[in-house]
Protein 1
Amino acid sequence: MPLPKPALTIPLGIVAVIAAVFAAYTWVALTWNYSEGERAGFMQKLSKKGWLCKTWEGELSLVALPGAAPEKFLFTVRDDAVAAKINALVGQRVALSYAEHKGIPTTCFGDTNYFVADVKAVQ
């Protein structure tokens, strides 16, 4: 069996190294938290979006003072069980526990940097 030619081996090696570096960077971006916390407000919507990669994208209305314009907190949910819990609480006051992941290389993992991990109703 003839050995591969260097003209083909070197470009394939470069492509393999680039793919490995991209995969490692993506793994780090998805597992390392830049910040984490909790936000409370009224659940406005949660929907599954995307052409190829379907993700749960939601909107929480944060109201600081009565009569003030509400601020919207846009977030992504990766777990279907958490999305089901949030869907059951749409229109109610809730507290979302989230982690922020900066530098995610593609929107295939979500449209936002904020990934919700849990939800609880607030009275």
Protein 2
Amino acid sequence: MNEKQTSILLEQLRPALVLLALLTLLTGVAYPLAMTGLAQLIFPDQANGSIITRDGEAVGSELIGQSFDDPGYFWGRLSATGPFPYNAAASSGSNYGPLNPALFDMVQARIDALHAADPGNTAPIPVDLVTASGSGLDPDISPAAAYYQVPRVARERSLDEAVVRQLVENQIRERLWGVFGEPRVNVLELNLALDKFQTKGDS
């Protein structure tokens, strides 16, 4: 390559490299910093993971479920993530179709667990207590799923059912703007409210 060709090549490369550098700074540095700053300014709680604290310590996120199997607590939805439930690094649903025997086995196992924990409860089991969500991380259950568990939780904690039912009612979140989504109960927040109520009662 002679000197003239090299000069032409450099003239063609220079604007491309300058544009690459400018776009890298704009989209790789300036834009993320601006969005991060804006999020921290307008939605600081959500931008920091919607962390739930108790006594000043983080106990979980409002957006990611936790596994509860103690009969004295409300249970959430099943989680299909691996290698452990509610693994935020492996969000996924079961992908089982309605005719898949594995789905039937999973649902039946949860039904058996619910009946074993509360054999006297003959009410129909809400579907969200025996199925996983699409993400496998759903932190919420329906009010019906929470009310179904009231007798068991009240019995295990030696509380009046009306008291536990009221705690559930206090935790119900209505549809966004009265239109979007469905009424729901955050399982972690409900269990924390349950612990707090009983701690106050014992003090």
Protein 3
Amino acid sequence: MLVAGYESLAAFLGHAIMLLARDQEQTTRLRETPALMPRAIEELYRRNLSIGDGLPRLATEDVRLGDTDVAAGSLVLVCVEGANHDPEVFPEPARLDIDRAANPHLTFGGGAHYCPATSLNRLHAHIGLETLLARLPKLVLAIPASELTWSWGMIKRLPKELPVKL
């Protein structure tokens, strides 16, 4: 659990720093209005594309998903990132919006598969981002995000390095 929690937080912070360094308008608002931090963190969780190919699950019974029938025993790959970018749930899902009030993201799973360490992860994220914004007020990416190279961990995708300018 410690390793999974560490890797999840490292992946989140890497992606959050990348997103904030790319969007100076949102970063400036967050720095100037620290009360937005809880909403910003939830939005950054929603935008955090670190899981990769999907979480494998077996259907325990016949079920219909959208317009597709899934037979009991079939393998289903759950794409959390897809759910977190559903335009029916999240208006303008590609946009980072630290003011997004309704944010029912599935980053921590749900039901029996809800992550038991969400409170600790949120606390670490809050402390990490608050400290980063205070200590590095002019942080921007040094290269275009499209030029980043990625590393795969247990089930997480992380930037191998995150070149920034201060």
